[in-house]
Amino acid sequence: MLSIAEKYMPTEDAKRASSEAFYVLCDNYEEWKEKKSFQDAIAGLRQAACFPADGDSEEWHTTDSLYAPYRADAFRSQANILDFRNTARLKTELLEELGVSINPETQLVIAHLKHCVTTGVQPHVSTYQVLNERAQRSDPLIAALAGSRCIYVESQKTFVRPNQLYWVPQQLGRYAYTIPGNYESFKPLFDAIGVKNAPDGRDFVDILLDIVGEYFEQSKPLTGPDRAVYDVCLASVATAHEHEELTPSDLQRLQEAPTILNLRGQLTHPDEVLLQDSEWHAGFFGGELDQALCKPVPELWPFVEEVGVRRLSESAQVALEFVDGPQADETQLAEKLMDRMDILARLLHDKPTTVRKKIRGALSTLTAVSHDVVRIQASVHVGGDQAFAPPTPAQAFYDIENGRLILARPVGDRSWAHVLNALFHQLMPEESGSEVSKLTLSVRPLMGMAVEEAHRELSDAGIPFLDAEPGNGNTEDLTSPDLDEMGGTAEPDNHEETGAASTSVNDSGEQPDGAPATPHGKRQRDTPEPSTGGEAAEQPGREAEYGGPRRGVTGRDGSETGVGSNKGPGDGERRAKKPRPKHKEQWDRRLLSYVRQRQEESSDAGDQEGPSEHNLAVEVVAREAVCAYEKERGRVPEQMAQTHPGYDIISRNPVTGEDRFIEVKGVNGEWNQTGVGLSRLQFSNAQDYGDRYWLYVVEFVSDPEHIRVHPIRSPATQVTAFMFDGNWRDAVTEERADPSARFIPGARIQHQDMGCGEIRDVVTRGNTKLLTILFDGKSQATPNVTLNLHRMRILEDPDDDNDS
User: Fold this and answer.
1) What per-residue string of b and e applies to 120-130 under the rule 16 or more CB within 10 Å gives b?
2) Of 686, 694, 702, 800, nearest to 742 (Cα)?
3) If you placed Cys at 374, which of 195, 408, 412, 720 could pair as Cys (CB 3.0 to 4.6 Å)?
4) CA–CA separation, 732 and 119 (whole Å)
5) Cβ atoms within 10 Å of 161's Cβ, excluding its own
């Protein structure tokens, strides 16, 4: 080998002779490798430039610059490959000892694939095989291919991006491809580069821009199946934008590309086209503006405006171009329109309130004049230019800026159709021309009737009267008042509620000052005075109002409440009250509590309320009040440490020996619907201690004159049901369906190619499931059948059907 390299250039004959000599070394390596003479010879080869490289007929190479020829097609363009082609006779151990690189680096294979993309050459399948093996080992370099055109499609002789490949068929025509089942073995590579089951918003943006790039460059209309794919992509991108799945850069790509189809089917930049939302404005140009107009489905209008398309109705102007003849006031016509303002509003009952307000505002200040000849002209700003339509004679024109109606004489009953068309087109530009024509035909007969007769006509036709709308007539001033004082010295129990505000009531149905209570939002009714007793006084503070978006806990309470049986002012007569239905009483008497969902970062130790919820000073005062309360009733209280879990005070009865385990909750002001809370540990203790556990709620802690203690015995055992309202949606566990989970031993399946059979065994290897299936008509089970959801399906058991 040394002699050949010294005497000859690396021609084909020289390479062949050198390879034969090297094969002899490989054949005898196991026998010679321990001999010193062989080791010396190998050392000489390692230093000498005597090895041929594939494709190089000019120079010999040293071993450290060469790669072994195993699967060399995976990286051929990026390295010097040893030109000994009979790989069956090569000895890997010898190559390693000489310093030849056996396996290519991942980056080398990626660079070769990118070279194939650049040159348009189909890469060898070994390129993808090597990358797939590296992906199985979670090589992070593979992810660099995501988003680039790196997958060769032989039928199209081109490379595509990973987001054009999907495991499930998509309605994206020739712009996407479904991966066949026999490519299941490449799933690690596909997963690493971002292949999915279905496209997301950014994928639709990429495919939309693929269509734009092809058609805009060729300046041809977008039609046929490709137009259908464009529509699917645009609708899907709009949906993704609505769900905030697009990034600002995605939106910017759409804004900067010719992504909008004009009325001629040609792709146009968003700032060079207008949304055709007004047939009236477009009609002035007689089709000459079609190249600068677009009309997607109405659901997409907000999105195309977000991309940068402006509305025609907002960009176009219709102006008075010419009048001839003396000006005459048409006061009678204007007044007739004003008198029929309510009639027009009724006809527009199914339109948005803003439209009716716009019509009312225009008619309330309308003036009208006439000339012998009236001519108008439309213009529009689009793409930085201003386009003018030819002047058009008109029988009526509404100058929306000045609130003036200009008519061409003669003015008579036949003028009403022109007048109404002029008004509706200017004030309702978003309506189609046919809709405006229908509306004009509906109003025209009513203009000749008296106002009352016109209203009767509308009522006979089933058109409703309108409720008073905001902005009509005098509106009540709803400005919030200034803050007068912070706090005060008035007795809390003597505060009067005004208007329809809700009134706090105790269990006897009366306000604390003895005044009758009225349920919020209801007309007062005459009812018998509720009885007052010690039981009601023992349980103050229970609210008559309840509900709202809380997670409820319903409690048990045997006391009679006054909810729904309040005394109200009337004509002085005392009338018997109709008994309240039982199914409503069970709601009246419930005690409402609510729970707070545990946050992810919380722990058992963190269940105790923090300083922001239970101020330390408040707790000290509340504990003292409870101790005084206990001493006044002959019990001996002992305070626990403030960090003691579960309860705050043990109170002993020296006569009976009974202990009370008391949890104290203090409230600065009134104990109201905000409530007090028990931690999970405290509630657990309440369950464990049963009747010996007490919750003492102390309200008005900061007001010594009104401080009150409310003892509740065994709060946990009084709970009869835990109610879970709609806010529990925040706590639901999201679980995705797994179609492969149904493929279990014993299941009957149908294979698209192999027929029906029964699964005998399932083995999972990474993301792949291998099935052992006994197919019908076969005596032995077929092992290692790769689960392919596109070619297999579960056969439903007919016994599961209910035929009764």
Assistant:
1) eeebbebbbbb
2) 800
3) 408
4) 52
5) 21
Q: Is the peptide bond before 516 cis (omega within 30 degrees of 0)?
A: no
Burial of 578 (0-12, 13-18, 19+ CB in 10 A): exposed
585: number of Cβ within 10 Å: 15
Pairing label, strands 177-178, 165-166: parallel
CA atoms of 82 and 762, how far apart (whole Å): 44
CB 187 within 8 A of CB 196: no
Given this model, what pLDDT does residue 12 score?
Answer: 93
pLDDT of the residue at 124: 95
339: number of Cβ within 10 Å: 13
User: What single-letter amino acid sits at 469?
Assistant: E
How many Cα neighbours within 13 Å face the side chain of 735? 5
> Which residue blocks in 523-660 are alpha helix, DSSP H?
534-538, 582-588, 616-632
Compute the chain's Rg from CA coordinates: 43
Q: Is the dihedral of CA 750, 756, 759, 764 positive or negative?
A: negative
DSSP state of 561: -
- Please give the full DSSP string across 91-131, using - where no structure is assigned: -HHHHHHHT-B-S--HHHHHHHHHHHHHHTPPPPHHHHHHH
Distance CA 436, CA 421 (A): 7
Q: Tokens in use for 255? A: 């804004």
Q: At what angle do helices 224-242 and 201-218 cross, to 10 degrees?
A: 140
Helix axes 125-136, 106-119, angle to 10 degrees: 140
Residue 258 is predicted with a pLDDT of 94
Segment (H or E) for 500 = none
Residue 53 — φ and ψ, nearest 5°?
-115, 140
Counting other chains too, the contacts that 543-546 makes at CB distance below 8 Å and 24 or more residues apart are: 543/504, 543/505, 543/592, 543/672, 543/673, 544/504, 544/505, 544/509, 544/517, 544/519, 545/502, 545/520, 545/673, 546/587, 546/590, 546/592, 546/673
Q: State the Cα–Cα distance between residues 665 and 710, nearest whole angstrom.
A: 10
Among 285, 294, 318, 286, CA closest to 429: 318
Predicted TM-score (pTM) of the model is 0.53
Are 356 and 348 within 8 A, CB to CB?
yes
State residue 478's pLDDT score: 62
3-class SS of residue 293: strand
The reported pLDDT for the residue numbered 673 is 65
Distance of CA 599 to the CA centre of its chain: 22
> Could you say which residues of the chain have pLDDT below 50?
471, 473-475, 486-578, 580-581, 583-590, 601-614, 801-804
Q: What is the pLDDT of residue 72?
A: 93
Candidates 710, 690, 689; CA nearest to 699 is: 710
CA 312 vs. chain centroid, Å, equals 31
């006569």: which residue's tokens? 655
DSSP state of 10: S
Three-class secondary structure of residue 728 per DSSP: helix
Task: For 400-474, list the strands marked E by DSSP.
Answer: 404-408
Distances (CA, A) of 437 to 441, 442, 631, 721, 747: 6, 9, 87, 61, 64
Residues 6+ apart with CB under 8 A from 1: 18, 21, 22, 45, 50, 51
Which structure tokens are listed for 167? 């495991």
Q: At what angle do helices 331-339 and 415-427 cross, to 10 degrees?
A: 60
Q: How far is 330 from 343, CA to CA, in rounded Å?
A: 21
**Whether the Cβ atoms of residue 760 and residue 774 lie closer than 8 Å to each other:** yes
How many Å apart are CA 510 and CA 507, to the nearest integer? 8
CA–CA separation, 174 and 211 (whole Å): 10
3-state percent helix, strand, coil for the chain, nearest multiple of 5: 40, 20, 45
User: Angle 471-318-258 (CA atoms, 0-180°, nearest 5)?
Assistant: 100
